[in-house]
Amino acid sequence: xxxxxxxxxxxxxxxxxxxxxxxxxxxxxxxxxxxxxxxxxxxxxxxxxxxxxxxxxxxxxxxxxxxxxxxxxxxxxxxxxxxxxxxxxxxxxxxxxxxxxxxxxxxxxxxxxxxxxxxxxxxxxxxxx
Length: 129
Hints:
The structure is a single chain. By secondary structure, this protein is α/β, with parallel strands linked by helices. Helix content is 34%, strand content 21%. It is built from four helices and six strands. It has helices at 13-25, 36-45, 64-74, 105-114, and strands at 5-9, 29-33, 51-55, 79-84, 97-100, 124-125. The chain has a six-stranded parallel beta sheet with strand order 2-1-3-4-5-6, with helices on both faces. α4 links the parallel β5 and β6 (124-125). The protein starts with a strand and ends with a strand. Mean pLDDT is 86; it is low at 119-129.
């Protein structure tokens, strides 16, 4: 069985490094990007990931929503998790999942494990405790 692949897009280096390490420890294959253009380059190398985890606000003209919308069109089987420290209107998430910052690594891992097969349901808000 091959490893699930994750495209992790987060401009905060420390958050990205900690989450990437946790994902690798859980057995995921991780490709990291610090902004949308780096993520686009990664998608050019491998257009299909099992998961996209993206922050919303990042440097540059494009944000995590732009990236998620593009991925949803070109790779509809990719499961999308959006994170942000600001409130996000649930109706813009479509069938994506939202995990508010700050979130725990345990919550992210739980979300990935629980929804490896069941993503695609209506939008859900996963609240950090």
